[in-house]
Amino acid sequence: MQYTRSQWLCLSLPVLITGQISLAGLALFLDAEVWTLHIVFGFLLLLPIAFITTSSRARGLREKAWLVAVLYAVQVTLGALIESASYWPIAIHFINALLLLLASIILASDSITESKYSMH
């Protein structure tokens, strides 16, 4: 089976997000210098998310891609709020990361399933 560019990006998102979560763990428990890499890599995730969101033709994929995009926007917003005096953005940032990972796994799975039943 040959995958489209959108499908490859959908399949790569869970891997990239898992890497992002791992970087946060490394920064938290091993080396605080990794925070910068976590932030930069986090902003780079915008590229595949934006491409998937704007290029998905199937309605079901487009809706799931937008869900990933909204969760990503919430994640970036929460990341900006972490510098505030409150601890709630940190807790929600972590929970949202897990939701973002789950949504990306569903999107990746559906991108494969969707290609079996529809013509592009």
UniProtKB/TrEMBL annotation:
The keyword Membrane applies. It comes from the Bacteria. The chain crosses the membrane at residues 34-53, 65-82, 88-109. InterPro entries: DUF6220. Keywords: Membrane, Transmembrane, Transmembrane helix. This is Uncharacterized protein.
